[in-house]
Amino acid sequence: KLTALAYFLATLHNKTATGDRVDFNRDCSYFDRIMDQLKNWGHMGWDEAQEFYRLKDQWRERGFMWEDSQVLVHGDVTPTNILFGDGLWVIAIDLERMKRADRVFDVGRVAGEIKHFFMQYARDPGLAEPFIGHFLWEYSCHFPDRENTFASIVRRVPFHLGLTLLRIARNSWISGNYRRQLLDEAGRTLR
Q1: Would strands 90-92 and 82-84 be described as parallel, antiparallel, or unpaired?
Q2: Separation of alpha carbons 13 and 11, rounded Å
Q3: How far is CA 184 from the centre of its chain?
Q4: CA dihedral 114, 119, 123, 126 (to 10 degrees)
Q5: What is the CA radius of gyration of the chain?
Q6: Count of C-beta atoms within a 10 Å radius of residue 118
């Protein structure tokens, strides 16, 4: 299924690429909204939030976060929003968050969802790494220079993976202990 999802997202992204550069400030604004929710709902203290803001600012200073062209992204690639058929058939639903952004917005969301799955059910985030790597490699094969594409995506994915873990940590159905694990893993990922 990861191969089919990689093909679907690469096709969506490649067919909608523009000449306009990514505006990473938008992703940073989204990060701030997630952080505001975590703080306002009592899931995170001021000191911890300041550390996350500092990490975000470090990512903002990295030139490679601004290098890619904007594409149309699904915006909410979660297991409940993707339906799989035979072979490479994929149907995406819940499209109201589609927008122009960095392709890694979607790719990082998938990586974060994979990490969340292994954290929640296997209690070991490290077990997700081969699956994340496989997904990123499969996604990269739909570009003329697979190895350079892979390297470019791998540099940018940690920000979006960490952001996805923070996003999941907001959910009311998350227990306090598991929320703490998500926040800790998000911090490690963003570092």
Answers
A1: antiparallel
A2: 5
A3: 16
A4: 60
A5: 16
A6: 17
- Residue 29, Cα to own-chain centre: how many angstroms? 15
Structure tokens at 128: 């997700």
Q: What is the pLDDT of residues 82-134, one digit of tens each?
A: 999 888 889 889 899 999 999 999 999 999 999 999 999 999 999 999 999 99
Place of tokens 């709902």: 41
Sign of CA dihedral 136, 138, 142, 146: positive
Instruction: Identify the residue whose tokens are 């701030």.
Output: 32
Alpha carbon distance 58, 32 (integer Å)? 14
Tokens at residue 50, please? 């300041």
pTM for the whole structure: 0.94
Report how far residue 142's alpha carbon sits from residue 149's, in angstroms, rounded to the nearest whole number. 9
Tokens of 163: 């952001």
Residues 19 and 186: their CA atoms lie apart, in Å, by 32
Residue 14 is encoded by which pair of tokens?
Answer: 């490649």
* Contacts for 108 with CB less than 8 Å, ≥ 6 apart: 156, 157, 158, 159, 160, 161, 163, 164
